[in-house]
Design a protein that fits this description.
This protein folds into two domains: 118 residues, 2-Layer Sandwich (D-amino Acid Aminotransferase, Chain A, domain 1), CATH 3.30.470; 161 residues, D-amino Acid Aminotransferase, Chain A, domain 2 (Alpha-Beta Barrel), CATH 3.20.10. Helix content is 27%, strand content 27%. It contains eight helices and 17 strands. The strands form two sheets. Strands 8, 9, 10, 11, 12, 13, 14, 15 and 16 form a nine-stranded mixed sheet that branches. Strands 1, 2, 3, 4, 5, 6, 7 and 17 form an eight-stranded antiparallel sheet that branches. A hairpin with a 5-residue loop joins strand 9 and strand 10. Bound molecules: pyridoxal-5'-phosphate.
């Protein structure tokens, strides 16, 4: 695994060497996708300390995803929280990305998944800008996917559920192949939903607009952070449905997520957004976001779970 630079993975209650963190080919989740996961970032601060961003909220969502799917995580939220920090410390990561994964084991096959144990693994690695450094700075090119986002009559958009990500992977591969950076998915009513691993915001006439929480979107923790930051900055936030043509005539668009952080969008379906560069409000929100997540401001201390490395 050339791109992953980690020494340890936490598995079912203990740290194991990176190469030992393996599963059997009959792992139930590998076949049928019933499992849940999280994506969390840790940041190194200017003062030399490190912290995990909104760790409690991510662990809460992990347990909510498990609850939605009926999986019982055999550890408490406090144990998983401590294990996340332990994984970063064991790998001596001052910053990095955490991937807790709850999955069904290889004890039995069959869709009923009876007598199959629930396992938990936590991996960490140092993941840079998910949509590229240039994307963060200058914006990316998006395309509306030919696939719709998860329909709540069929799937569970509020859960980060392994098998549901086939929808994201297919949409992402489709637009990458067509030469774009990221896919925007519409819901089955035709409204703009979200991207493959990010929530979406547009700016029009100074207002920041995003689909409502009740739409079939993931309740992104970065989305929630952006809404709080915008309100702190006295920017009006509207949560309402909108269609793809409203996106085309937006003044600014940006995506947000733990992996993508705040990534401006400069083009949708070959139509330039605004003047084709990250807009003023996007840049203001992004700057404030990075100050908050990197801890270079004292606002929202409740979002930063500090940890240190015993070196
Ligand atoms: C489909 C989807 N939407 C939105 C997000 C953004 O969520 P968050 O900001 O909590 O990382 C993610 C990433 O977790 C995602 O997978």
């Amino acid at each position: 695994m050339a791109s992953i630079n980690a020494d340890f993975v936490w598995m079912d209650g203990r740290l194991v060497g990176f190469e030992q963190a393996t599963v059997h080919v009959l792992t139930h989740t590998l076949h049928y996708g019933l499992g849940v996961f999280e994506g969390i970032r840790a940041y190194e601060r200017a003062d030399g300390q490190s912290h995990v961003f909104r760790l409690d909220d991510h662990i809460r969502r992990l347990f909510e995803s498990a609850h939605i799917t009926g999986l019982e995580i055999p550890f408490s939220p406090e144990e998983i929280t401590a294990a996340c920090v332990e994984t970063l410390q064991a790998n001596r990561f001052r910053w990095g990305y955490l991937r807790p994964l709850v999955f069904l084991g290889s004890e039995a096959m069959g869709l009923g998944a009876r007598d199959v144990l629930v396992h938990v693994a936590i991996a960490a690695w140092q993941w840079g800008a998910y949509l590229g450094d240039d994307g963060l700075k200058n914006g990316i090119r998006c395309k509306i996917s030919s696939f719709n986002r998860l329909d709540p009559r069929v799937n569970f958009p509020k859960g980060k559920i392994c098998g549901q990500y086939v929808n994201s992977v297919i949409a992402k591969r489709e637009v990458l192949k067509a030469g774009y950076d990221e896919a925007i998915l519409l819901d089955t009513q035709g409204n703009v939903s979200e991207c493959t691993g990010e929530n979406l915001f547009m700016v029009k006439a100074g207002h920041v607009i995003t689909p409502p929480y009740g739409a079939g979107i993931l309740g992104g923790i970065t989305r929630d952070t952006v809404i709080a930051i915008a309100r702190d900055l006295n920017v009006v936030v509207e949560q309402r449905p909108f269609t793809r043509d409203e996106l085309y005539i937006a003044d600014e668009i940006f995506l947000c997520g733990t992996a993508a952080e705040i990534t401006p969008v400069r083009e949708v379906d070959d139509r330039r957004i605004g003047d084709g560069r990250p807009g003023e409000i996007t840049r203001l929100i992004a700057r404030t976001f990075f100050d908050v997540v990197k801890g270079s401001t004292h606002t929202h201390p409740e979002w930063r779970e500090g940890y240190s490395l015993a070196l």
